[in-house]
Amino acid sequence: MPQTLSLNFQPEEWGNSTLLYTRTAAALKVPAKKISYIHIQKLSLDARGRIPCYRAMVEVYVLPEKYTSEPLQGIPSAPIAKHAPTVLIVGMGPAGLFAALTLASAGIKPIIFERGKPVRERKRDVAALGRESLLNPESNYSFGEGGAGCFSDGKLYTRSNKRGDIHRVLRTFVHYGAKEEILYQAHPHLGSDKMPAMIEKMRESLLQAGAEIHFNTCITQIHTDSKGRFAALSDQNGKEYKGNALILACGNSASDLYRYLHQKGIALQEKPFAMGVRIEHPQDTVNAMQYKGAEKRYDLPPAEYSFAEQSGNIGVFSFCMCPGGVVVPASTDNNTLVVNGMSDSGRRSPWANAGWVASVSREILEANGIRLPQHPLALLDFQQQTESRFFTPGKGFAAPAQRLTDFLKHKNSASLPRSSYSPGIFAADMHQYLPAYIAQALRDVLGKVTQKKPAFLTEQAILLGLESRTSSPVRILRNPETLEHPQMPGLYPCGEGAGYAGGITSSAIDGINCAEKILQNAAIIAKNQNKHEPTGF
User: Fold this and answer.
1) Cβ–Cβ < 8 Å for 90, 495
2) Disulfide check for 359: which of 10, 315, 451, 508 has CB 3.0–4.6 Å away?
């Protein structure tokens, strides 16, 4: 049996494979040549002490034992049969992609519909939005091949261990080109510069297996049969596509689809989310705050931070930290302003940014004097109204911004430091843009944070907004056992847009879970067909 060890390495030591083997051998009191393989299970950087150290959890195999990796599931390896059952998938983000890969590897034909463009063309639209404030509502930071996660750093850490096999998702990304280090890093990320090539490889794998992919295709209607079961889709040109099941993995910005479902009488549910701002610092400031000067003596990665506090009964937290990153325009509609953060694989930008958001729910809004109508899209309406408030006609997608020091003093900023946000920023009082209770909660919590971490409070730190696409404000209902919508068998709401995930990894897991439920259903149906019983697949 392999043995598990915890080993510590100083920053300059980590990465030396010879030292890894000799130190492991010394810990086990065996010759280094007797070690056949060292499987790194987890790696984290501990910067709390005077000298930072990497803590590695390793699984060690000593001869004659040999390490054998488990076969990777969900990778298509054979062509799909000509008359195989078909499953329609709306959305080509992580949930849709991993659902498609899982189905194709099991011999079921995925037909994918993506409202946006292929990722290479999408990159041009994203660049035009940043440089010229030219928004393509169907191809931007949220819509297009790869989904929103493709251009938001590619963070892969999640707390969703109970939802499924996180390691399977990470190994799939490695199969399609990611570095193996993501398998053991405490906070793995892919980088916005690396994600597009991986997404293209996934697409090619699906096409070679026999999947269909329809870009620039918006779904306008969902059809059912006489028993109320899903039967077909129609696109914006009226073309109809039939399938045995539908996975709806639309992403959390697909407000038009939520409104269509509500109009059609498909049961939805409002879902709490969070809203606030991006806070941007010079990366050197964050490094000094977290490393306490050690970054000057050692070669350390750009530092991150994470905070969570309460302001009364309102939760306020940082999320989607982008060390060495940039703030980007993430609007999907003209006359609205949304921002997000991203960084490339090297995290080389001189800035760091993170979302700072407060909880939004019906109870919190109404406790703060904001009345909502009684329908499941009420929080979506609130989200969109606030996004419209942040948009300033005549300024393109320039963002209102305020120095952190001035925000805490509730005063206007006479000037602003440089920012990574390419459409530009202009000085504004964020209290005039944010809902009053969110501004108060942020000011309260940021005051507490700056007391704990005085270096966080600097004239070079700015708030800019709006950060509002933290998660979906709507949940598309589904049966927890079958994962189908309770009103429409054969419809599988999936991923972050359906309200069941919160990032790349958890969305990918949910895509796998929905696909595997369909496969289970197909197996049951095939068994019933052998018994000459009627089926719905």
Assistant:
1) no
2) 315
